[in-house]
Amino acid sequence: MQQNTAHTTATTHPLTHTIGDDLVVPRMGYGAMRLAGHPDERRGFTAPIWTAPTDRAETVALLRRAVELGIRFFDTADAYALGENEKVVAEALRPFAGEVVIATKVGVVRPSPTEWVTHGHPAYLRQQAELSLRRLGTDRIDLLQLHRIDPAYPLADQVGALKLLQDEGKVRHIGLSEVTVEQIREASGIVPVRTVQNVYNLGERGHDPVVDHAAAHGIAFLPFWPLAMGDHAGPDGPVTVVAAVARELGATPAQTALAWMLHRSPTVIPIPGTSSPEHLAENREALDLRLTAEQYTRIDRATTPAAS
């Protein structure tokens, strides 16, 4: 990609992050949530994520292509397609055991294709982790995240269930999803919190304080829905500004949005998901894209809550 030399020197960002003290991964991951059902059923916020992918061979090939491109972090959950997502991820990545990090989540039940219900009973969390171990074909989960905090049970009991699994050697590292700074602090008093996975993108920056807290404490921040830019299509809105910066960089708007996120904090690891080999490669290339300080600031100003 050609850089526009009319701008100031490009800023830099670290290309890797270490989860805990032992899992070094490039700062571009892959979110496997959408790998379910028929390809036409995967789009939009209401996608069911209910059954195994009908294009299983293509899905396996896509995940293996991700490894070829240098992606080493893969995110799934027991609730995605009732465990079928974990199975296909395990099948695809088995040849790369020891080279990749697979993260999964527990704490959400799926009574139907349209329901996602938080359930944090400690015994249930431990049971689901045991099932994830079987589906992933491993003796230890690299990263187990609490999918959602259930207000029906004390946070200490839910995190404590994950810590028990860690003490038993069945989980390497523990993370949280959709949490506040206060909840991270509370959980950190029980077990080291290595990752936080919250919704975060140029159209939704409500978790800016969490991004900053994670950076200050060396916690990996895994933004999901990282490529959404909201409906701000005005001349000073993120869609327009990102498109302008993308033209200056000779990049796509999606790559530019991901590059901004990588510059936003050194512990951010975006996990965009896609069924397209072309988009997969495009997303991976964003890791090598450099914004100038002026370009970063221009996008930042267009996407902060005060400017939206």
TrEMBL record:
The keyword Oxidoreductase applies. CDD domains: AKR_AKR13B1. InterPro entries: AKR, Aldo-Keto_reductase, NAD(P)_OxRdtase_dom_sf, NADP_OxRdtase_dom. The keyword ATP-binding does not apply. Residues 27-230, 243-302 form the NADP-dependent oxidoreductase domain. GO terms for molecular function: oxidoreductase activity. This is Aldo/keto reductase. GO terms for cellular component: cytoplasm. It comes from Streptomyces mobaraensis (Streptoverticillium mobaraense). It comes from the Bacteria.
